[in-house]
Structure formats: structure tokens, C-alpha cells
Amino acid sequence: MTKENETILETSNVKLWYGNKEALHGIDLNFPEKGITALIGPSGSGKSTYLRALNRMHDLEDNVTVTGSFNFKGQDIYAPTTDTVDLRKKIGMVFQQPNPFPFSIYDNVAFGLRLAGVKDKETLDRAVEESLKAASIWEEVKDNLNKSALGLSGGQQQRVSIARVLATQPDLLLLDEPTSALDPVSAHNIEDTLLELRDQYAMIIVTHSLSQASRISDRTAFFMNGNLVEVGDTRKIFIDPEKQETADYISGRFG
Ligand SMILES: Nc1ncnc2c1ncn2[C@@H]1O[C@H](COP(=O)(O)OP(=O)(O)OP(=O)(O)O)[C@@H](O)[C@H]1O
Ligand SMILES: [Mg+2]
């Protein structure tokens, strides 16, 4: 990572309630414009809740209240004027289960651009090819772009999902356990893909795999009980964390 790695997203005092139940208790966390931050922590610690708050996925649920400040490249994510469709193009999300649409591979990747009104065939062709290349799946699918994405393996579907997100030229990728539904070889391919992308994008990945976090992330944030316990350089968190809870979790004593 270069020295000029500026902050792309600043969040402070983030609280979130499901009904009356407070699930996040005031998270302060910033992200640089390039590189991978891993969110780790026990089940129920608030990792997904926090991640989903970053592109306003909770807007789609009833009874969720979010407070705190979210500054994304100078824009207030929760400002009433923020267009969430636009926001989710800039802050794209990849889920645990690969979720291709029941269309061709080409149409899956072109989906976001068409939604944005792009019709020119050459522009779409180029974007589809570039996105599939960036997601390290082009060589495997280039002769079958018109075949259904549902015919691909889970790992291939996940890379197509990544290509679909990349096609709209996001600045930040959110990934919630993107390899946990995959076999080890496919998971390894996704890790390689993310490592290829890490110099160009900011990525936040939730993972239960400590070895995955240590292999691919630059920074690691440890969550517990709806709090951020600590965040830092991944090597530091794994070798010499500041907090006892972090040391206990890393050494497998709970979680
Ligand atoms: N839709 C929801 N309605 C009510 N409570 C919820 C909802 N989603 C999550 N919670 C609660 O919020 C807390 C944080 O959950 P969250 O899913 O963010 O944890 P997590 O760290 O992602 O866990 P996991 O590692 O199991 O995915 C938990 O207590 C959970 O039960
Ligand atoms: Mg989760």
C-alpha cells in the first residue's frame, strides 16, 4: 500500500437498533481508499449489521434505526438526498450465497450498466469483458457468455457476482463471508481474485476464517457484542493485539 492511501469512508458513533434492541453500540471505524479490511468476531457480534449499514441495506427492512455519521468521499450516506441506487453502485455488495440472476453470464454482468441506461453494444461488451477479467473468470466463461449463469459452479457464480459488482465501477466493495458457502478450491480462487483487486479498490470482508483474514487483509477489525474492540494492521492484530478479548478470540478461546 502506498503512503497516499487516503480515507474513503469514515464512520463514527454508529448505533443501530432492531426494534428496541441496540445491536451496535457506537462504532468508530475508517477505511482507506485501497486495500482489504477484514471484520472478524464471534457470531452475533454485529459484523453483518455494521457492513449492511454502509450501503443502507437496512433501508429494505422495517423497524431498523441507524444513527451516527457516515462520510463516504465527502458524501453523507444517510442524507435524505442520497440516491440509494446510485450509492449501491459506488458501494457494491457481494453476499455469502452466490446470487446470479437467472440470465446469461453476459446479461448478469451488464445488468447494472443497463439499469444505468447504457445501451451501446460496444460499451457493454467492453465492460463485460473487463469486469470478468478483473474477477478472474474471463478465461473460464468467454466462450459461453450467452449461457445461463446458473449453470456455473458455486465458485464461478461467486466470481460472476463479483464481476457484476465491478461493472458499475464501485469505489468500495462489501463482502459478507463470500467464500463460506464454497469448496476450498473455489474459496482459494476468490481469495486470489480479491488479492488481485486490492491495489485498485477498497474492500471490507466479513469472515469467520481467521486464516483467510490473515492471508488476504491489510487491516483487521475485531467486533464483539456490538462493539469494535480494536482495529489495526492485520499482522499486529494477529501477533500482538492490544486487548485481551482479541488475543482470546485469535487464539480460539471463544467464538
Ligand atoms: N433482522 C434482524 N432482526 C433482529 N435482530 C437481528 C437481525 N439481524 C441481526 N440481529 C441481531 O443483531 C446482532 C448482530 O447480528 P449480526 O448478524 O450483525 O452478527 P454477525 O457478527 O454478522 O454474526 P454471524 O457471524 O453469525 O454472521 C445479533 O444479536 C443478532 O441476533
Ligand atoms: Mg454475519
Automatic annotation (TrEMBL):
SMART domains with a match to the protein in the record: AAA
Name this protein carries in UniProt: ATPase component (PstB)
GO MF, one annotated term: hydrolase activity
UniProt-listed Enzyme Commission number(s): 3.6.3.27
Taxonomic classification: Bacteria, Bacillati, Bacillota, Bacilli, Lactobacillales
Presence of keyword Repeat: no
Record's signal peptide: none
NCBIfam families in alphabetical order: 3a0107s01c2 (TIGR00972)
